[in-house]
Amino acid sequence: MIAHVWRPNAELVQRASSVLSSAGWPEQAQAIGVHVRRGDACVDKRNNRKCFSWPDYAAHVKELVRDYGFNAVFVATDDAETATAALADADLKQLGVTVAIVNADRSFYGKVTKGERIEHRLAKGQGDTLKLGWDASVDLELLAQCQAFVGTFSSTLGRAAFMLQVARLGYVPPFASLDIAWCSAYHVPRGGKGLSAKVKEAAKVLDSVTGRMVNYDC
Question: How many domains does the chain have?
Answer without folding.
Answer: 2
